[in-house]
Amino acid sequence: MKFLLLPLLSIPLSLAAPTIYLAGDSTMTAKGNNDGTAGWGAFLGNFTSLAIVNDAIAGRSARSFTREGRFTAMAASVKSGDYVIIEFGHNDGGSLTPTDNGRTDCTPVNGNYATTCSTVYDGVSETVLTYTAYEENAAKLFESKGATVILSTATPDNPWETGTFTYSANRFVGYCRDAATATGSTFVDHGQYTANAFQALGGSKVDAFYPNDHTHTSPAGALVVAKAFAQALEFTSSSLKSYVHT
Predict the structure, then answer these.
(1) Which residues contact residue 135 at a Cβ distance below 8 angstroms, ignoring those fewer than 6 apart?
(2) In sequence order, what are the beta bridge partners of 20?
(3) Which residues are catalytic?
(4) Residue whose C-alpha is closest to residue 37's, from 156, 210, 225
């Protein structure tokens, strides 16, 4: 009996299933704040069958993620057709003086996102950009690789912390929206959709999602936050929504 050996066919990259890459902080990374909490990126797989590479790192801002070369390292793996979700904001505030923590971004002057600040961090002189400039630069980097970029607002701190539901968008929401507009990226107001979900669930349940502080959620809370992202995505024009279900 003779067996016919057929050549193995390689799948062109353009036809391969896309991968979702995540860039963010402890509210996104799988292990949260490394204290039993969890980031929502660990649960995004509940709402999509695509492969997910979670490159989020606790304690990072758009500035420190850039300075440490993490966007550049991600771009080395990203291929055309992939998706990159970028979400920062929790660690981007503060002041560069009197002591620079290495995370604070430069505040735009009169709405000018090209504003720069000079600082010395860890003994090294550094020109600090605005949050929007860092996000725009990252988006352009990934778009140059053929990826689709989603710029997402940060998750909210516990909106029930005072006993009464309170949520309002901070300045980084506008910064994020403007970066998305400037680069043609998809804007997702993850913070607002998460706040809406938490309002519907009520104070006692949401308080239980924050076991240690008002920022980092339990795994159960992170699952709700991940679902809120998927729901927010449905109301955008991003092609990623065709791979996501709620």
Answers:
(1) 62, 86, 88, 151, 175, 176, 179
(2) 52, 83
(3) 26, 213, 216
(4) 210
The SS3 call for residue 26 is coil
Whether this prediction's pTM lies above 0.85 is answered by yes
Q: pLDDT for 48-102, tens place per residue? A: 999 999 999 999 999 999 999 999 999 999 999 999 999 999 999 999 999 999 9
Identify the CA nearest to 91 among candidates 58, 130, 133. 58
151 phi and psi angles, rounded to 5 deg: -100, 120
E strands within 133-243?
A: 148-152, 186-188
224 token code pair: 């709700």
Strand partners, 19: 51
Rounded-to-5 percentages of helix, strand, coil across the chain: 35, 15, 50
191 token code pair:
């913070």
Single out the residue of 135, 200, 133 nearest to residue 167, CA to CA: 200
Token pair 């349940």 is found at 205
Rounded distance between C-alpha atoms, residue 108 and residue 106, angstroms? 6
Which pair of tokens denotes residue 143? 């778009």
- pLDDT tens sequence across 170-209: 999 999 999 999 999 999 999 999 999 999 999 999 999 9
Q: In angstroms, rounded to a whole number, what is the distance separating the alpha carbons of residues 155 and 83?
A: 20
Q: Residues 73, 116: contact at Cβ < 8 Å?
A: no
CB of 186 within 8 A of CB of 151?
Answer: yes
The pair of structure tokens assigned to 141 is 């980097």
Q: Radius of gyration over alpha carbons of the chain, in Å?
A: 19
Rounded Cα–Cα distance for residues 68 and 59 (Å)? 12
The H or E element that residue 193 is part of is helix 190-201
